[in-house]
Amino acid sequence: MSELIQNLEQKFANLIRSYRKHQIGKGPDKIRITFTKNWVIAHMSGCLSSVEKFIIRSEEGRNMIWQARTRMIKDLYSELSPNEMEEIVGAKFVKFFTDVDFENDEVVSIFVFDQPIDGTDKMFSI
Q: pTM (2 decimals)?
């Protein structure tokens, strides 16, 4: 992997961490970014706050936190002007997918862009 791609992935990780900390109140403890074709895949761990960990002990709490961590974060990203993301990758932001794994305190998010961002000419279709 080129040093340029590694630097861009680090910038993207810092942007996601900052955004989540500012908007949700807690950013991930660890984040790993991978650029592949026209996707940025973010694997995050240590995302849940102490209060969220307490709430997810019940099924109702799990549903509530899942809603907040999936639907609401999608809404937040749709409200976010993706200019900083687009500047980092050099492509237009198209779509966002995310899910959370409570047992392992992990979140995976996929950011889809309109052109390859990994230095190739290949794209995933959605």
A: 0.89
